[in-house]
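HUMAN: Can I see a protein plus its fold?

ASSISTANT:
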Amino acid sequence: MDLFFTMLVPLTIASIALYAAGRGVDVYSALVQGAGSGLETLVKIIPALVGLMTAVYMLRASGALELLAGALAPALDRLGLPSELLPLMLVRPISGSAALGVGAELISTYGPDSDLGRTAAVMLGSTETTFYTIAVYFGAVGITKTRYAVPAALCADLTGFLAAAWAVRICFGSGI
């Protein structure tokens, strides 16, 4: 069974290539053309990604993230979210790598089996790096006005954070 799962992706790729060759498609040319299109997309989105990553590192280094977390702590305590999770909730929509760093810090501080550690892990798995995703997808197709996409995505992130705390509370009977 392990061999099957190990070979699943290569077999899928080989099956698609064989099917395309059977239909008369020049598979190598299609691959090269797709790779070229991917590089064109990469060139289009790099400026947005560089700006986004620079902003994230500046916020973390300046301490502004901690100040914002302190200001929002009372409101989230009313919703049943501990203030210790605030840095994770603030960073997650901006940067996945920064969120993983904050999550790892929470888990190492409070333990992986603690309520906070479990909630942090579920939050990381149930939310998206909203601004990164919007920068990549909207930048790839040249959309400059996101309209309602950002507020809707941030509402979805907040819902994911609340649902993560709720799910940990229900599944593990925790006190969060």
Summary: The chain has a mean pLDDT of 87. Residues 127 and 159 are 9 Å apart (CA to CA). The two ends are 40 Å apart (CA to CA).
